[in-house]
Amino acid sequence: MFDNLSDKLDKAFHILKGHGKITEVNVAETLKEVRRALLDADVNFKIAKDFTTKVKEKAIGQDVLTTLQPGQLLVKLVKDELTELMGGDVAGINLSGNPTVILMAGLQGSGKTTFSGKLANYLLTKKNKKPLLVACDIYRPAAIQQLYVVGDSIGVEVYSEPENKNPVEIAQNAIKHAKANGFNVVIVDTAGRLAVDAEMMDEIERVHKAIQPQETLFVVDAMTGQDAVNTAKTFNERLNFDGVILTKLDGDTRGGAAISIKSVVNKPIKFVGTGEKMDAIDVFYPIRMAERILGMGDVVSLVERAQEQFDEEEARKIQKKIAKNEFGFDDFLSQIQQVKKMGNMKDLVGMIPGASKAMKDVEIEDDAFKHIEAIIHSMTPIERSKPALIDVKRKARIAKGSGTKIEQVNQLMKQFDQMSKMMKMMQGPGGKNLMKMMGG
Ligand code: GDP
Question: What gap in Å lies between CA 131 and CA 129, rounded to an integer?
Fold first, then answer.
């Protein structure tokens, strides 16, 4: 995410290395580079200029600080300003209605339908809500069908009236249906066009007026950069929406939209989409995003994700197995499943401080565990529980069955062996000492 921008900012800060004190000259030079990096990331010209002016004013006033290295001080000022620019505090979602009505707006292809599903799934699994999805696209039957596919995949009901050509009526009927059937959130997915047009704007404005949503969310594809910001402006003038959803942040986005949109429309980014799957949704935290942009990682999110996936019962089961020397490949596989649930590898690596930079040239596969899983699936149940049985002949069979090379099977066996040994050690008396040393 935003690798190019991170890289350029990092280079800009190098200018200050070795200087004892922040002077106007070296600050100006660094900030010129910062501005260039922002412009390259497709940040609006005026925003980039104001940004560096503000940082400069703050930096010059602070050369008395001796506890920090000037480079670090400037990085901190840039981080604070980036956080501020992206909205400062995290913006929550208003769920006070009964039912809460959420209207999704945006261009076709921005990711509205996908995000409607992600939001429904988020509210269902994380907020204990009973959401209803509403298909209000009267032009494209395929769009209605797509919402059904999404709804099915997450177990959320979809409301539609395929024969009705009046989106206002459909939305109103859906809300009645929700009230009568105990749904407490209604997510209305509307029609989108490939570009802003008058008819679409009139239509969504009518729906907006009629259903008075608690939340009107504008969905925009982050890959479209400055176009995203301009579309946001147009939609905001008509709908006065409550928040922005930035989708496709997992792609090769330059970052301009994320950085500029808040200050142009003065509406916060509430969520971001980071993939096509239903759980690829994140609450947007400006400070965490600023830290990621500056290559500081996002340890808080990483730990949160790990905690979300942590299954205490499973952990206890595994512990017992290790103690009894029964840890096998099936357990290994279930550990991999847990890690996978935390998100895709590229995204996770991006959250580790410094890792993005260190692994810049390493090609990370989206499905980094593909080969390992294939190898384990090619083992028989007995082999999985008693890996010691796997001899050369069996290895050759497993490699053939999984479409891998025998070296890959050997490598996995070795990794598994090392991991088992290490886990055993952590459990023994040595492990307890280690825990004590770490303050546990
Ligand atoms: P809509 O026309 O606004 O309803 O857009 P869709 O929900 O149909 O999304 C358009 C395309 O973008 C689909 O192929 C989605 O799978 C894809 N998409 C949506 N959100 C994301 C995201 O966060 N990341 C990625 N990589 N793809 C996304």
Answer: 6
